[in-house]
Design a protein that fits this description.
The chain is mostly beta strands and about 450 residues long. Helix content is about 5%, strand content about 55%. The longest helix is centred in the first third of the chain and has 25 residues.
Length: about 450
């Protein structure tokens, strides 16, 4: 029996590894993973980070130390890995984007789009006492938009412009967490970013007189990304007893320019032409220098997490502008507040299954990392979710989460340009496995 259990655990590990490899290979093959005009500039739509239990608590969790949940926000937490055990996490996420914008004539233009993709795959194992290893794969940002515009050119005709883009940036993280002193842990992680972002531009002239069109100009810009970065974290637990635990956490992410390999292809009526110029200049692709601080307080029934995040994008003086030069987009430093609560009525109740569930609620508020026409873009999100234990007394669980968010507001930036208001809904499901199984134990009987 013991031998069969050992085989089943190694079979589970093989399935986990195969899932990790297959999704890492297919992560860049998906189509549009976001559909947002905000992703038209720079690195695109930044994905919510952390595993689903953290995202269901508003995205907070820098100070989280858990035996059953992988903390992707702070590598110092890897030192909490349970001896001779393995944690594996796999999550999926679907989104619905709903965009609305006031037009110059007073009408409201609305668009909607749905996406579905994996969110994260993570593995955490102990190496020695007080030393743990974490490995994760997750999307970092996504680009997805389709826009259309037209204008009248005197003595020529009508010019039609089509803009579209798609692609994503994926991060692979390998980190170590070490507890050199009791209740004090440090950690470091190496992060590799890779991906491709394609931005397309098409201009067609329709003459006033005659038939047909002038030659069309088609431009394609490909950004191929391959970049290494680092993350450092600290956790301190000043209170830890049978009734309550209080942990504090601090994380610094080393950002910088991604320095992508850029390939520009311009085609005029089917013929390559390197002298044609794109109508819109894009922001450089950069990662922010980010400092996150948080606290996590937990009792038998309640857990509360609060994080404060400061992101220094570092290129606030670099702008992108339209051809007319009357509308600018720029990076800006920003801050985000995240908070959440988890309630578990009675995790040891043998009769009422619902009392063993984990119920989560959270929110976050801050500003988008770009300004449009000098205007900052406020954003917020409300989250909720629950965790369903797979078996009594075990760590394995199925987690379900929901998120509603809003970015931007209905207001005019100039007489011709108004800010976009975007609302989104997210549904996610994740699986946390193997937490209650003991690994790396030599069987006594064959």
């Amino acid at each position: 029996m013991l031998k069969n259990n050992l085989y089943s655990r190694w079979l589970g590990a093989l399935v986990a590894c195969l899932a990790f490899v297959s999704f890492s290979a297919s992560a860049q093959e998906s189509s549009i993973n976001a559909f947002s005009p905000f992703s038209m500039y720079g690195i695109g739509e930044i994905k919510s980070q952390g595993t689903l239990p953290q995202r269901s608590m508003g995205g907070a969790g820098v100070a989280l130390r858990s035996l059953s949940t992988i903390n992707l926000l702070n590598p110092a937490s890897y030192s909490a890995a349970l001896p001779r055990s393995v944690l594996f996490n796999f999550g999926l996420e679907g989104q619905n984007f709903y965009n609305s914008q006031m037009q110059a004539d007073g009408t409201m233009k609305k668009t909607s789009y749905c996406t579905f993709n994996f969110h994260d795959i993570a593995l955490q194992i102990p190496l020695t006492k007080r030393l743990g290893l974490g490995l994760s794969l997750a999307p970092y940002s996504s680009v997805g938009y389709r826009m259309y515009d037209r204008e009248t050119i005197a003595d020529v005709g009508l010019a039609e412009y089509d803009y579209s883009g798609e692609g994503d940036v994926t991060e692979v993280k390998v980190g170590l967490g070490w507890e050199p002193f009791k209740n004090f842990s440090i950690g470091a992680a190496a992060i590799y970013y890779w991906g491709d972002i394609d931005r397309n531009y098409r201009m067609t002239l329709i003459p006033y007189t005659g038939t047909g069109t002038y030659p069309s100009t088609i431009g394609l810009t490909n950004h191929s990304i391959s970049h290494f970065a680092a993350q450092f974290g600290v956790q301190y637990t000043p209170i830890m007893n049978k009734k309550r635990v209080l942990s504090l956490g601090l994380v610094y992410d080393l950002g910088g320019d991604l320095n992508p390999m850029v390939t520009n292809t311009i085609t005029v009526n089917g013929t390559l032409n390197s002298e044609a110029v794109n109508r819109v200049d894009n922001l450089p692709l950069v990662l922010p220098h980010k400092l996150s601080a948080g606290a996590f307080y937990e009792t038998q029934k309640f857990a509360v997490a609060v994080d404060a995040v400061y992101e220094r994008w570092g290129s606030s003086n670099t702008t992108a502008e339209t051809a007319s030069g009357d509308f600018r987009v720029a990076y800006c430093d920003t801050g985000i507040i995240k908070a959440g609560v988890e309630w578990t009525p009675n995790r040891n109740d043998v009769r009422n299954f619902l009392k063993r569930w984990h119920y989560r609620l959270g929110f976050n508020y801050g500003y988008y990392h770009q300004t449009f026409g000098g205007e900052r873009v406020p954003q917020y999100a409300l989250t909720l979710g629950f965790g369903i234990p797979v078996k009594f007394g075990g760590f394995s669980s199925v987690d379900v989460g929901f998120e509603y968010g809003c970015r931007g507001k209905d207001q005019h930036i100039t007489e011709q340009v108004s800010m976009l208001k975007q609302q989104y809904f997210k549904f996610a499901i994740a699986f946390s496995l193997f937490g209650e199984d003991y690994w790396f134990v030599r069987p006594k009987y064959d």
